[in-house]
């Protein structure tokens, strides 16, 4: 009998595949209203009984202006009033879940957005103190915040440090003037340099820089120039995000001229160039889109197979429970995911009536946790031992037969290696990790529209 014909895919076709980013599994399009405030409340009580440390994510969905490329859940607030009103509701939400959790230990806090540094200083301080009064901050707790460099001042950085902030992520994206104009985010190099200096002077030395590729008018030259200039600022970590163009979800992205967007081939080249420059600069590739210095905690976690993927990207935080606070935030517990009302009004209404603001989620069922572990291994280590993961979950490796068979074209192309029960993505093709992970996603094709793989 003839061997079956296995096509060899082109890299462009694979890079163009629309697949999830797998910051959770199952992914958000498969959440449903079956998970209610009562379900989530029950999970919180079980978390309290386990007595393990938890992590907190606080979402601040406001920015002074909206950048054309932005894919985050945020809106423009020119005045402080809506931000203050939002902070007041956050206190009420904290009270609601603290009541169910009790004074558990906290290992990690992350403020994201939007632009968390839009919170007036007194509001931010009151929120940190509220959390500190209700929970036990671990002495080595990581307290991280996403900052817009255009709004980082010397005074603001000092206040953040005084409140225990010990890591900051700065959105740099690009330093090219023409690209900045095309994305409506004017942020020249001196602004970025000043934000690094203010943070360091205040004692916040763990600084991450976010860069992007695939933006309108971006070229290999502008990518090189930006990467080299930011390398000179010596951040501890980089995140390199490919611009996710999803105008069907984010209407303001229609302001981006699609004709000025780099095509799939160019995106692959830009991602490869950024990676090459950062690796030459001494940074180690962490998962699909992060880079860190060799002695960074994330690099050590990767070396010791303790790296995890969560909604913020990659982390060395081992907490199994992450409480999402604020409109649209997603919480992860050992029993499943729960998401808050996505709009500020619905979220506030629930809190004002004394209810947890959960509107949907996903309770783990069937082989969800098994597949989540396979996908996390692929995205964190670029390899997985299916038999080992199956054994850990009391399952049989035979359940992956179809998934492994679907990998054949990628194996044929020489990008993925399958040896026994071990699946590994070859080093020169790490960029297709999301596509490999997608072959193990039992929900794919059942709804949800995603961005391109590269
Ligand atoms: C929520 S933003 C927070 C940072 C802060 N608001 C700022 O812009 O400086 C986090 C990061 O997400 C990335 N990002 C935003 N929109 C994106 C998109 N459409 N595609 C890919 N990455 C995106 C940017 O690199 C940004 O720095
Ligand atoms: S990229 Fe940052 S500053 Fe720009 S709109 Fe998005 S969250 Fe706001």
Automatic annotation (TrEMBL):
<feature type="binding site">
    <location>
        <position position="244"/>
    </location>
    <ligand>
        <name>S-adenosyl-L-methionine 2</name>
    </ligand>
</feature>
<feature type="binding site">
    <location>
        <position position="113"/>
    </location>
    <ligand>
        <name>S-adenosyl-L-methionine 1</name>
    </ligand>
</feature>
<dbReference type="InterPro" id="IPR013785">
    <property type="entry name" value="Aldolase_TIM"/>
</dbReference>
<keyword id="KW-0627">Porphyrin biosynthesis</keyword>
<feature type="domain" description="Radical SAM core">
    <location>
        <begin position="48"/>
        <end position="289"/>
    </location>
</feature>
<feature type="binding site">
    <location>
        <position position="63"/>
    </location>
    <ligand>
        <name>[4Fe-4S] cluster</name>
    </ligand>
</feature>
<dbReference type="GO" id="GO:0004109">
    <property type="term" value="F:coproporphyrinogen oxidase activity"/>
</dbReference>
<feature type="binding site">
    <location>
        <position position="173"/>
    </location>
    <ligand>
        <name>S-adenosyl-L-methionine 2</name>
    </ligand>
</feature>
<dbReference type="GO" id="GO:0051989">
    <property type="term" value="F:coproporphyrinogen dehydrogenase activity"/>
</dbReference>
<keyword id="KW-0408">Iron</keyword>
<dbReference type="GO" id="GO:0046872">
    <property type="term" value="F:metal ion binding"/>
</dbReference>
<dbReference type="InterPro" id="IPR004558">
    <property type="entry name" value="Coprogen_oxidase_HemN"/>
</dbReference>
<keyword id="KW-0411">Iron-sulfur</keyword>
<dbReference type="InterPro" id="IPR006638">
    <property type="entry name" value="Elp3/MiaA/NifB-like_rSAM"/>
</dbReference>
<dbReference type="InterPro" id="IPR007197">
    <property type="entry name" value="rSAM"/>
</dbReference>
<feature type="binding site">
    <location>
        <position position="185"/>
    </location>
    <ligand>
        <name>S-adenosyl-L-methionine 2</name>
    </ligand>
</feature>
<protein>
    <recommendedName>
        <fullName>Coproporphyrinogen-III oxidase</fullName>
        <ecNumber>1.3.98.3</ecNumber>
    </recommendedName>
</protein>
<keyword id="KW-0949">S-adenosyl-L-methionine</keyword>
<keyword id="KW-0560">Oxidoreductase</keyword>
<dbReference type="InterPro" id="IPR034505">
    <property type="entry name" value="Coproporphyrinogen-III_oxidase"/>
</dbReference>
<feature type="binding site">
    <location>
        <begin position="114"/>
        <end position="115"/>
    </location>
    <ligand>
        <name>S-adenosyl-L-methionine 2</name>
    </ligand>
</feature>
<keyword id="KW-0963">Cytoplasm</keyword>
<dbReference type="GO" id="GO:0006782">
    <property type="term" value="P:protoporphyrinogen IX biosynthetic process"/>
</dbReference>
<feature type="binding site">
    <location>
        <position position="330"/>
    </location>
    <ligand>
        <name>S-adenosyl-L-methionine 1</name>
    </ligand>
</feature>
<dbReference type="InterPro" id="IPR058240">
    <property type="entry name" value="rSAM_sf"/>
</dbReference>
<feature type="binding site">
    <location>
        <position position="210"/>
    </location>
    <ligand>
        <name>S-adenosyl-L-methionine 2</name>
    </ligand>
</feature>
<keyword id="KW-0479">Metal-binding</keyword>
<dbReference type="GO" id="GO:0051539">
    <property type="term" value="F:4 iron, 4 sulfur cluster binding"/>
</dbReference>
<feature type="binding site">
    <location>
        <position position="70"/>
    </location>
    <ligand>
        <name>[4Fe-4S] cluster</name>
    </ligand>
</feature>
<comment type="pathway">
    <text>Porphyrin-containing compound metabolism; protoporphyrin-IX biosynthesis; protoporphyrinogen-IX from coproporphyrinogen-III (AdoMet route): step 1/1.</text>
</comment>
<dbReference type="GO" id="GO:0005737">
    <property type="term" value="C:cytoplasm"/>
</dbReference>
<keyword id="KW-0004">4Fe-4S</keyword>
<feature type="binding site">
    <location>
        <position position="146"/>
    </location>
    <ligand>
        <name>S-adenosyl-L-methionine 1</name>
    </ligand>
</feature>
<feature type="binding site">
    <location>
        <position position="67"/>
    </location>
    <ligand>
        <name>[4Fe-4S] cluster</name>
    </ligand>
</feature>
<feature type="binding site">
    <location>
        <position position="57"/>
    </location>
    <ligand>
        <name>S-adenosyl-L-methionine 1</name>
    </ligand>
</feature>
<comment type="similarity">
    <text>Belongs to the anaerobic coproporphyrinogen-III oxidase family.</text>
</comment>
<comment type="subunit">
    <text>Monomer.</text>
</comment>
<dbReference type="Pfam" id="PF04055">
    <property type="entry name" value="Radical_SAM"/>
</dbReference>
<feature type="binding site">
    <location>
        <begin position="69"/>
        <end position="71"/>
    </location>
    <ligand>
        <name>S-adenosyl-L-methionine 2</name>
    </ligand>
</feature>
């Amino acid at each position: 009998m003839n061997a079956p014909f296995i096509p060899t895919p082109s890299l462009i076709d694979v890079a163009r595949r629309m697949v999830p980013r797998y910051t959770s599994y199952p992914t958000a399009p498969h959440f449903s209203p079956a998970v209610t405030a009562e379900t989530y409340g029950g999970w919180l009580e079980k978390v309290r009984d386990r007595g393990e440390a938890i992590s907190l994510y606080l979402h601040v969905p406001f920015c002074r202006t909206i950048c054309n490329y932005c894919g985050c859940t945020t809106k423009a607030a020119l005045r402080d009033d809506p931000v203050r009103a939002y902070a007041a509701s956050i206190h009420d939400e904290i009270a609601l879940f603290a009541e169910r959790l009790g004074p558990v230990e906290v290992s990690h806090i992350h403020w994201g957005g939007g632009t968390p540094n839009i919170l007036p200083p007194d509001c931010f301080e009151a929120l940190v103190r509220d959390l500190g009064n209700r929970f036990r901050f671990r002495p080595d707790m990581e307290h991280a915040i996403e900052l817009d460099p255009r709004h980082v001042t010397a005074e603001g950085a000092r206040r953040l440090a005084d409140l225990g902030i010990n890591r900051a992520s700065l959105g740099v994206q690009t330093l090219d003037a023409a690209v900045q104009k095309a994305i409506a985010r004017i942020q020249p190099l001196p602004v970025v340099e000043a934000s690094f200096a203010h943070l360091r002077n205040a004692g916040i030395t763990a600084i991450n820089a976010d860069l992007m590729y695939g933006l309108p008018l971006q070229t290999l030259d502008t990518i090189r120039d930006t990467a080299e200039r930011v390398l000179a600022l010596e951040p501890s970590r980089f995140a390199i995000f490919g611009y996710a163009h999803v105008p069907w979800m984010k209407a303001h992205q229609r302001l981006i001229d699609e004709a000025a967007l780099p095509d799939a081939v160019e995106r692959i080249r830009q991602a490869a160039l950024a990676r090459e420059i950062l690796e030459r600069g001494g940074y180690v590739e962490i998962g699909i889109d992060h880079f860190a210095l060799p002695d960074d905690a994330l690099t050590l976690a990767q070396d010791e197979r303790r790296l995890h993927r969560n909604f913020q990207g990659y982390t060395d935080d081992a907490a199994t429970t992450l409480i999402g606070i604020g409109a649209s935030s997603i919480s992860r517990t050992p029993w499943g995911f729960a998401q808050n009302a996505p709009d500020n009004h619905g979220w506030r209404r629930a809190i004002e009536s004394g209810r947890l603001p959960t509107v949907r989620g996903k309770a783990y069922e069937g082989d969800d946790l098994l597949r989540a572990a396979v996908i996390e291994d692929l995205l964190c280590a670029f390899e997985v031992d299916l038999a080992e993961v199956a054994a850990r979950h009391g399952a049989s490796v035979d359940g992956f037969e179809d998934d492994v068979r679907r990998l054949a074209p990628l194996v044929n192309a020489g990008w993925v290696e399958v040896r026994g029960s071990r699946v590994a993505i070859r080093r020169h093709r790490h960029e297709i990790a999301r596509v490999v992970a997608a072959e193990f996603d039992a929900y794919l094709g059942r709804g949800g529209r995603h961005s391109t793989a590269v």
